[in-house]
Amino acid sequence: MRAFAIAALALCASCAEHERVSPSSYPSSGLYTPGSTLGASDPTDTPPKRICASLPPAPGAVDGGAVGTSGTLTIEYMTKTYDGLYAPRNVTAVWIETMNEQYVATLEVQAAVRRKDLVYFQDHACVDQLGPDAIASATLRTHDKMHVLEWTGLDFEGKGVPDGDYQLFIEMTETDLEPGQLTVFGIAKGPESYILPMQIPLEAPLVQVTATWAVQ
């Protein structure tokens, strides 16, 4: 069992002022700083719909039930402003992928009509198939809320996923003119329970992130 946190700084140090760059052209992990044209898109653009590919069948899967260890992952996190265009109003998305970047399920989308502003979520996730544990709500007016999310080990189709390591993505933005901030953490699903305060990069717009895996 291992649970770890990873984050990397943005790769684009000197992009052309008006250059438009597709977020899918860059690695999917790390922290993307405000003000960069990395992943920038016209807010009126409609992102291409991602094909929601099912995860490969796992040993022990029966009628979509839990695979391997049954348990619940609880994610608690709080954001902070990075003084974006609409600050302190913000939109967030939280989702899970495999270690080879295959979409598993969404845990939270707090954006409503501003979902298109979540550039990386639109690029990575199956936005029309969030999963059974997803929470959806409107744009947040402040950063005072403690987000509490749960994942019961099911993918977006309601099927159990194997024990192992996964990636937790947290995206937050305060603007619709450029990408917001994306931070990626490592989490694990397995036979041992744990409570893990995540190591947060200094540049991340996060106050705290805690992952708790409770075996049933």
Furnish the topology, listing elements before pairings:
Blueprint lengths: L70 E9 L11 E8 L4 E9 L7 H6 L10 E4 L8 E5 L12 E10 L7 E9 L4 E4 L8 E10 L1
Parallel strand pairs: 3-4
Antiparallel strand pairs: 1-5, 1-9, 2-3, 2-6, 6-7, 8-9
Using brief descriptors, characterize the structure shown.
single chain, 216 residues, mainly beta, five-stranded mixed sheet, four-stranded antiparallel sheet, disordered N terminus
Describe the structure.
With 216 residues, the protein is mainly β. It has one domain. It has one helix at residues 119-124, and strands spanning 71-79, 91-98, 103-111, 135-138, 147-151, 164-173, 181-189, 194-197, 206-215. It has a 5-stranded mixed β-sheet. It has a 4-stranded antiparallel β-sheet with strand order 5-1-9-8, with no helix packed on it. Residues 1-47 have low confidence and may be disordered.
The percent range for strand residues is 25-35%
Estimated helix fraction: under 10%
Separation of termini? 16 Å
Given as residue ranges, the uncertain stretches (5+ residues, pLDDT < 50) are 1-47
Mean pLDDT: 79
Largest sheet: 5 strands, mixed
> What is the total number of structural domains?
1
The tally of beta strands, per DSSP, is 9
Brief summary of the model shown:
The protein is mainly β. It is built from 1 helix and 9 strands; from the N terminus they run βββαββββββ.
